[in-house]
Design a protein that fits this description.
This is Ribonuclease Z. It catalyses: Endonucleolytic cleavage of RNA, removing extra 3' nucleotides from tRNA precursor, generating 3' termini of tRNAs. A 3'-hydroxy group is left at the tRNA terminus and a 5'-phosphoryl group is left at the trailer molecule. Belongs to the RNase Z family. Zn(2+) 1 binds at residues 63, 65, 141, 208. By secondary structure, this protein is of the alpha/beta class. It folds into 2 domains: 4-154 and 199-299, 4-Layer Sandwich (Metallo-beta-lactamase, Chain A); 156-195, no CATH class. Helices cover 25% and strands 30% of the residues. It is built from 9 helices and 18 strands. Strands 6-5-4-3-2-1-18 form a 7-stranded mixed sheet. The protein has a 7-stranded mixed sheet with strand order 7-8-9-14-15-16-17. It has a two-stranded antiparallel sheet with strand order 10-13. α6 packs across α8 (247-257). The two termini are 20 Å apart.
Amino acid sequence: MANRELVVLGTASQVPTRTRNHNGYLLRWDGVGFLFDPGEGTQRQMTHAGVSAHDVDHVCITHFHGDHCLGLPGVLQRLSLDRVPRPVPVHFPAAGTDFFRRLHHASAFEEVAEVREQPVERAGPVCTGAFGTLEAVPLDHRIETFGYRLVEPDGRRMLPERLARVGVRGPDVGRLQRAGSLRVGDRTVTVEEVSVHRPGQRFAFVMDTRLCDGVFELADGADLLVIESTFLDRDARLADAYGHLTAAQAARVAAECGVRCLVLTHFSQRYPDPRLFHDEAAAVFDGQLVVADDLVRVPVPPRR
């Protein structure tokens, strides 16, 4: 199992199809699981994908249209049924707090797990941890909507040949990383002497929105961008009217923002052939391109 990967649970938009479930995406990031937009059927898709309730550490809701949240009651109840022992924060637009509470208690169940409401009121950091910082950025849809970005802090990559040259080995390598400097014999070795700058990785999640500044902000420098492409460009006017993107628009964002891997999803049922989305996006974006299918796994690209 990859340390950093996207598990796609569903790829449909408003109406599911025979081959596409409603939305659902689990990001595994160094042992921390972020579940995004669990639509109807997410519990069952988790079973098919080999994902358990214990794999969910955070739940992130972009907005409260049904295809992005109607699986939430089952997921939250499953946390209690499986007795997940740690608190699970749920991040969601603050304007939808009433919707969240209704979904949380949509039916009777024994609530054992601790679900923590984390309403998002404005752009900025949502939470931090060993994984980095989860940020929210407002988007332009028909109701209040936020996209999310996971940002790993920059670090240092240790160089074995330089470590050997100055005599730092074994547990002392970790001590040097933590302290920033280490006394070796009659001199002090700094971490800068034996390492190079390592840019942190970025993951971005963009759902229902028109093109807006927030889309580009979220996608900027992303190693992996998951983005809706509900429509094809021939229906761009319809996309704008309903607050959505086309495959060409999503690809343009990826190309302009230096995205390494572009994952298209949230497809309208009006288009039976997914190759159309690939061809439209590939004409604009020449990086790694994935037209998502249910239950696929997409690894976060390795560090540069």
